């Protein structure tokens, strides 16, 4: 009862998310009458906040993403729900904090069929649903069991069709281990993960899987969109770039003649991905469905530690990187484009998150939970934010990353502009920051504001306990 009272109090306190709260408790979400838009969810992998032109990087060439942000709305304070990929990916699908559905780190679980995903939501509304790229919330091959996860492919979670890998592949020639690679037991020139890491609806793919991996993915996205142009569709496009192994083709490396080899590969694979995003945007305009289609873009977490240490990847000056609870590990580049519905050139400093996709799309399509499926939804509707109708989130953000076997137990909460974090490791120290005055987390206020620290620590632990109840069965039918 205490947990129920806590969440009811949260719902009553937040006027900004009335529609979302109504959806949580099984009441109509109040969307407009008629068909909702097509939805495209694009995500890059390990791309830092500063690794894109629209956030001020004048070295990496990302003209399509820059144009997308200019033609739509840029989210200047957009957070991944975790500082690493698998938990964040689950949050995009469910609108829930990763600790709720039990994916606490990479390769430590899989998406539960008891979760309701954005694909299942839209399938119920008559949408065609397709997934393309890096899945990483469960194994996609039933006969390839892993010691730290389980079989849970996109087809178990509402996707009509998919072209997917379980996890990382090289960003150039994704079926071949690249030169110079020595991690994860692979040898250069050997087949990558058996030589057929991509599955198309459960069948290994060996045709058209050479060259730029982002192009390989988009070659499957475009036919899906063309096939469903006259209906409504969800296309979830999760690129591998610029996650390691980071490799770019020569044509893309040549764009950076003054850079070293590592930088050429990193910048080049991002530019190659950007080119494919441009190809997608052009196709929407060719088919004359761009005004019927909302396109979201974000990264899954901050830049990888090795690339940051080499001075190649950028968190945009924010402290930390992937695997840390600091802003550099959580803040990611993000924007949304919807011609005719969102004014060009918009930007917002409202703190938004990957948990916000689900409730946003639910409100756009008029989706409502059946009474037996009611559960906490942790996100807010992004449309009032993108339209400039609100200037604050009005709801706590919670982040977590946990591998207890390795001594990792990081958590964080942001309430307004105040952020409390517990370092992932090794100290587990609590730190407190005022992000309005100190966005780069230079001054720890923990010792100066003990009462505020205690308040936020209690709130953080309350959410953690609520998430534990969710994943232990409170939100699932028996």
From TrEMBL:
Keywords: Hydrolase, Signal
Keyword DNA damage attached: no
Pfam family, one: Sulfatase
SUPFAM superfamilies: Alkaline phosphatase-like (SSF53649)
GO MF term set: arylsulfatase activity
Signal sequence bounds: 1-31
Domain named Sulfatase N-terminal: residues: 37-367
InterPro entries: Alkaline_phosphatase_core_sf, Sulfatase, Sulfatase_N
Top-rank taxon: Bacteria
Family matches, as PANTHER family: ARYLSULFATASE FAMILY MEMBER (PTHR42693), ENDO-4-O-SULFATASE (PTHR42693:SF53)
Family (UniProt): Belongs to the sulfatase family.
Protein name per Swiss-Prot or TrEMBL: Sulfatase-like hydrolase/transferase
